Amino acid sequence: MKFLLITLITHLPDPVSGVRRTTNETFRKVVDDAVLGEELGFDGYGVGERHERPFISSSPPVVLSHVAARTSRIRLFTAVTTLSLLDPVRAYEDYATLDHLSGGRLELIIGKGNGSAQRDLFAVTPEDQWDRNAESYELFRRLWREDKVTWSGRFRPPLVDAEVWPRPLQQPVRVWHGSATSRASVDLAARYGDPLFSANVTHDIEPYAALVEHYRERWAAYGRDPADAVVGAGTAGFLAARTTQEAVERYRPVFEATVAQQRRAGLVPAFETLEDYVERSSALVGSPAQIVEKVLRYHERFGHTVMHLHADGAGLTPPQHRANLELFQAEIAPVLRRHIPDPPWPDAPGGTAPTYAAEAVPAAAAPVPVG
């Protein structure tokens, strides 16, 4: 199993101290957390993309470029690249450049994104966002693979023998599809033979497991070998301690601050109490043995071979944050690696990203459903 650290770069006061870092301090911490992740042996570091409060993650290529300059081994993920909002040509240029600057360590997780404010900012509607995501990915995918592209669609001007530079270092970059609520993104991943990354952060296991199951069904329906399907999954939070009671009490202010923020935003929390959250959500809060048991329980439903933890360490001091991640690598990750196989994974920076199945889209593939 492989392990990622991921941040959405949420710009909020710390749930314990009440102190909010400056924007500059927050960005510096994001980079420092990536350096720490590499030092401790994590396999990847991801930066989200959001274009609305309370996030300041509107430019992941820039952030990841700085991370690339400060690291040498860890793979660099987007989480997610919001293709429904972006011009795929411009996104390709940014990420092909980043692929070179990182020595071929780039991995992309794409998705339509969420939030009404960022849709309004980019003039995208709820009705067309899935069509935009699918169309943008069609062009984005071709740009990585073809030296000249002729293409036309609904949402951007057509291309005729277009050459887009630079050509990527990886041939091509690996693209995962972020999955949270809709079968559209799941079907898109299966159609193209791409891996799936389940968000798995807001609700209990059932809705996410249903989408993963649908992915595997669609994968087979497109004529692909079920053994080639690759799944990653997120976690809602992480805090490990020697005893479950210690972990739960240390995590309590983080949970209470998150619930308060959701209510201020007019949302209904999926879990009303911390005890229910620890039991039924994907959060990994407890002793090492308890955390291993929960991950293995989720693996029975998802079959995932990649997992992410939140990189921010909200509510923890820097020494506590480091100790938390060290405990994961010392007592949790080794057990999970013994029980869960690795996905296809480049052995060293600068290599070609592995393929999972046939590159070509099946000739009889049905249109991608919307909704």
TrEMBL record:
InterPro entries recorded: Bact_Lucif_Oxidored (IPR050766), Luciferase-like_dom (IPR011251), Luciferase-like_sf (IPR036661)
GO cellular component terms attached to this protein's record: cytosol
Name of a matching Pfam family: Bac_luciferase
Single annotated GO MF: oxidoreductase activity, acting on paired donors, with incorporation or reduction of molecular oxygen
Keywords from the named record: Monooxygenase, Oxidoreductase
Database matches in PANTHER family: BLR5498 PROTEIN, LUCIFERASE-LIKE MONOOXYGENASE
UniProt protein name: Flavin-dependent oxidoreductase, luciferase family (Includes alkanesulfonate monooxygenase SsuD and methylene tetrahydromethanopterin reductase)
